[in-house]
């Protein structure tokens, strides 16, 4: 095991008259608009550019119609086309900017005001939807969200900005200077690649989504967006704006499909061959030997992760495969499969914690592929269970998915309480250098697991707030919490919380009769008594 540590919006009810710009005169910006950081007035492009595209991101100095005209002027390779103009007028985008951030309490008022300014019901709905999506996207993209064109589906599947920046750094470290982003969606990863200095060619099947990606990338001179089916991709056929074939590939297969008569909601797809493009096509690209990264859901079955033999061939005699689970802000957000030169030598699997700037806060790696580790021996009759005064470690999701729990236990001097359960027990607190890889709890005492006995325990200890954590047991935390606190009266100013952990230890399968359910009252390391 190799471990590495790095370790109040103003009212605009009376200003909508200025939100829709007259054709011949730019309106003055409201004080509320300037106060939200929009220092520049919109730039009106020359008439010939307006005629060329029919669209202008009017509220943004960094992206003009002239940018868009130049951006889409180059010819597209066979099988691909240039994206159309996005379905927004300059006035629509200006109105969307004025209404940012979205305020649900004003939605009816804003819709009526837009209609009064001459926008059709469809245009008004599109403007408000864009504002709403931009506001939601701020948590993922930061302040940049207010300048993006977004679809609901594209936003939901897109990569968080810090994680996308990390992807770009991986390509740079592999000495890749240009990337084909196959299935780019709204262009979240492409923007990160371009921001890092990589030339990008972004391909999207849906023309409207591609037009949004083109808008979002228009200020990057070394970027192109094309409309087409990525399965038409031929290595060497896609060239950068400078006319050079792209060196690397990034692929984010669509894992959602529209359902229902109006296709108003999406559902996850878990069959890799049902992805768009299918996973078999993705592997065919890896067999070309090019540096490549593929984003998958963090819950992807381990059996779906390809072996070296799966991508080896005459064109790829020395293949490399790295499975990396990426965690950001406490959540495992993705599994990335890195292939060939984009994969690191002697790294088969990794748990990587990424910070808000795209930096690596901590990382654990192993050269052993998934499933190669020897099975662990079960603890002897619960001898490894935590006791009062000891400590319980809860490994992070990335560590668990990368099957690095045993590696973590060895590194910190702990042991698993059961070979099938991702809890560790130790006599000492978790070392600070490993804080990114696990949560640490001080064990206060063992608690009963029967609901009646546990409710009595809660009452006797004066507990009036409960946090429940569990692994391997059939418990619904919300229901158990409600049952334990039923009838508990919380006096004003009194707050006595308890964190309860439940799990199982012992036999499984034919030996399931030896299974024991256990529970502890714990306190997070560093929490006040």
TrEMBL record:
Organism in which the protein naturally occurs: Rothia aeria
Gene3D superfamilies: Vaccinia Virus protein VP39
InterPro entries hit by this protein: SAM-dependent_MTases_sf (IPR029063), Thump-like (IPR041497)
Segments for region (Disordered): 14-50
Protein's UniProt name: THUMP-like domain-containing protein
Residues annotated as domain THUMP-like: 439-511
Extent of Basic and acidic residues compositional bias: 17-28
Pfam families reported in the protein's UniProt record: Thump_like
């Amino acid at each position: 095991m190799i471990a590495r540590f790095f370790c109040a919006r103003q009212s605009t009810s009376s200003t909508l008259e200025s939100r829709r710009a007259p054709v011949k005169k730019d309106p003055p910006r409201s004080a509320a608009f300037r106060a939200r950081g929009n220092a520049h007035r919109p730039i009106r492009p020359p008439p010939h550019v307006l005629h060329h595209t029919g669209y202008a991101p009017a509220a943004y100095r960094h992206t003009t119609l002239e940018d868009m005209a130049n951006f889409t002027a180059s010819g597209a390779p066979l099988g691909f086309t240039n994206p159309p103009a996005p379905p927004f007028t300059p006035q629509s985008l200006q109105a969307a900017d004025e209404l940012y951030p979205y305020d649900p309490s004003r939605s009816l008022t804003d819709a009526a005001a837009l209609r009064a300014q001459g926008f059709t019901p469809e245009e008004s709905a599109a403007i408000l939807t864009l504002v709403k999506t931009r506001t939601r996207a701020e948590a993922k993209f930061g302040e940049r969200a207010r300048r993006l064109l977004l679809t609901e589906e594209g936003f939901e599947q897109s990569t968080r900005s810090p994680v996308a920046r990390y992807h770009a750094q991986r390509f740079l470290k592999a000495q890749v200077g240009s990337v084909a982003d196959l299935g780019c969606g709204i262009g979240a990863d492409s923007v990160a690649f371009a921001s890092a200095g990589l030339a990008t060619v972004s391909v999207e099947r849906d023309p409207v989504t591609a037009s949004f990606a083109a808008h979002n990338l228009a200020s990057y001179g070394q970027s192109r967006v094309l409309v087409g089916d990525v399965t038409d991709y031929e290595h060497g056929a896609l060239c950068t704006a400078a006319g050079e074939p792209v060196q690397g590939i990034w692929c984010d297969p669509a894992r959602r499909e529209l359902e229902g008569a109006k296709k108003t909601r999406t559902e996850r797809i878990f069959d890799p061959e049902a992805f768009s493009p299918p996973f078999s096509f993705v592997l065919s690209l890896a067999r070309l030997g090019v540096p490549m990264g593929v984003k998958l859901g963090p819950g992807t079955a381990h059996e779906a992760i390809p072996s070296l033999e799966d991508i080896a061939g005459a064109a790829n005699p020395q293949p490399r495969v790295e499975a990396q689970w990426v965690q950001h802000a406490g959540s495992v957000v993705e599994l990335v499969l890195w292939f060939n030169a984009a994969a690191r030598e002697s790294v088969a699997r990794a748990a990587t914690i990424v910070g808000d700037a795209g930096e690596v806060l901590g990382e654990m790696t192993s050269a052993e592929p998934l499933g190669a580790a020897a099975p662990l021996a079960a603890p002897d009759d619960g001898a490894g269970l935590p006791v009062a005064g000891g400590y319980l470690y809860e490994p992070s999701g990335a560590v668990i998915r990368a099957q690095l729990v045993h590696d973590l236990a060895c590194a910190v001097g702990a042991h698993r309480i059961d070979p099938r359960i991702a809890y560790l027990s130790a006599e000492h607190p978790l070392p600070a250098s490993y804080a990114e890889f696990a949560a640490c709890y001080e064990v206060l005492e063992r608690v009963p697991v029967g609901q009646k006995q546990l409710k009595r325990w809660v009452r006797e200890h004066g507990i009036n707030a409960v946090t429940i954590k569990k692994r391997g047991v059939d418990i619904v935390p919300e229901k158990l919490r409600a049952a334990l606190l039923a009838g508990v009266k919380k006096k004003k100013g009194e707050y006595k919380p308890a964190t309860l952990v439940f799990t199982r230890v012992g036999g499984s399968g034919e030996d399931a009769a030896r299974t024991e359910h256990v529970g502890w009252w714990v306190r997070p390391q560093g929490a006040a008594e």
